[in-house]
Amino acid sequence: MSDSHGIVLKRRDDGSFALTGSLSFKTVTALRNQGIDLFNASDALVIDLSEVQRSDSAGVALLIEWMRYAQSQDKPISYLNTPSQMLAIVRASSLDSILPLSRSE
Length: 105
Prior knowledge:
Blueprint: E1 8-11, E2 17-23, H1 28-39, E3 45-55, H2 57-72, E4 77-80, H3 84-92
Parallel strand pairs: 2-3, 3-4
Antiparallel strand pairs: 1-2
Helix pairs in contact: 1-2
């Protein structure tokens, strides 16, 4: 699924999800609900962030919202291949102990 700002969230054949594009205040509002709609059909949520080109604090807020949704549904969630820019925002906000992030080198 995508919106007019070029951000795409899609389900892969293996059941995981891939997020592609730039996360910003302009893109996350519609993407939040699109993600929840897609996640409803999954038991576990694995979201690959390796193709996120740019993110501001709104992108991190989106990850928190999706994490809260997953917790409310008793679904495990993890974010893979977190871009360094997002990790910097997460660490500066002291959210690295809360969000289930990983970064492959």
